Amino acid sequence: MSTKELETYLSDVGSSNQFETNSSKYVSHVKKLLYRRMLVGISDGRFFLGTFYCIDKQGNIILQDAVEYRSTRRSAPSPMEQRVLGLILIPSSCRKTCHVDCSIDEQLSLMSLGEQKS
């Protein structure tokens, strides 16, 4: 799933009016993403790789068995440092990118959600 599609989808889930009118559609799609590997990039340049555990109405994401990856230097290319974190909450305000490990059929299904919104 592309970052733009997932970001659009997650922002719709976080929007209360949109969520209330289409809750069953969004809830069913979120359920399909549960327990999938998710890579989340945040605004300070770090990435978190973990298992998607849940999302709330505000768009905050909880990952379990998460590992943090960060650059050890400011210059590119630099080696990545990693550390195991466990269960973490990533606020929607910090989130820049999201990638979910899913099949092509699921990617197409999620893309159709963004098209229906327009």
UniProtKB/TrEMBL annotation:
Domain Sm: 30-91
Any one cellular-component term (Gene Ontology): NatC complex
Pfam family, one: LSM
Stored Gene3D superfamilies: 2.30.30.100
Name the UniProt record assigns to this protein: Sm domain-containing protein
